[in-house]
From TrEMBL:
Pfam families: FERM_C (PF09380), FERM_M (PF00373). This is protein-tyrosine-phosphatase. Keywords: Hydrolase, Protein phosphatase. GO terms for molecular function: protein tyrosine phosphatase activity. InterPro entries: Band_41_domain, FERM/acyl-CoA-bd_prot_sf, FERM_2, FERM_central, FERM_CS, FERM_domain, FERM_PH-like_C, PH-like_dom_sf. Residues 1-192 form the FERM domain. The keyword Hydrolase applies. Its EC number is 3.1.3.48. GO terms for cellular component: cytoplasm. GO terms for biological process: lymphangiogenesis. It comes from the Eukaryota. The keyword Hydrolase applies.
Length: 196
């Protein structure tokens, strides 16, 4: 549990999982409770200014940062009496509700040279266009094979004669992405009964 808590906390602070300001303050309050204990054991909460509370891309001016830090101190107060283990579990549960949790996304190009995001999640592979078009999902059942050819990733679809092609920056990226997708696809096929 503790190692998983550290990993998801790192994902939040590194900006890999996006949270709203309200979610970020809740998460920071739980992290302070898990890492430092009860609110009332501190005379001052000045130490919070030195502690990394928010995602890196939240860097604001000092006044905003001070206001957010005060809100975290208030949030921390509400968690008094909760053990470190309970706070870690609450943090993990909160993170699981964040948009993008359980997804891994890679920047690629489609056949027309447009920048898109190719991602993987428990149900299959998805494509998000930066323009804002609807997300296209290829479920594991619909995918026959996943391979790479030089710096391209090829999805062979069942019941369709065409393949879907994506282009990456280099051979190593294409190799990594195709192996990741293929191993998840294999896992799904081996455990199909469980997932259904």
């Amino acid at each position: 549990r503790y190692q998983y808590y550290l990993q998801v906390k790192k994902d939040v602070l590194d900006g890999r999982l996006i949270s709203s300001f309200e979610q970020g303050i809740r998460l920071a309050g739980l992290a302070v409770q898990a890492d430092f204990g009860d609110y009332n054991q501190f005379e001052s909460h000045d130490f919070l200014r030195e502690y990394v509370l928010f995602p890196m891309d939240w860097v604001q001016d000092e006044a905003v940062l001070e206001e957010l830090t005060q809100k975290v101190a208030q949030e921390h107060r509400t968690h008094s009496g909760i053990t470190a283990a309970e706070a870690e579990l609450m943090y993990i549960n909160e993170v699981e509700r964040l948009d993008g949790f359980g997804q891994e996304i890679f920047p690629v190009k489609d056949n027309h040279g447009n920048d898109i995001h190719l991602g993987i999640f428990f149900m299959g592979i998805f494509i998000k266009n930066r323009i804002g078009r609807t997300t296209v999902i290829y479920r594991w059942n619909d995918i026959g094979n996943i391979a790479h050819n030089k710096s391209s990733i090829v999805l062979e679809l069942i019941n369709k004669e065409e393949n879907v092609l994506f282009h990456t920056d280099d051979l190593e990226n294409a190799k990594y992405i195709s192996r990741l997708f293929a191993s998840r696809h294999k896992f799904y096929k081996q455990n199909k009964i469980c997932t259904e």
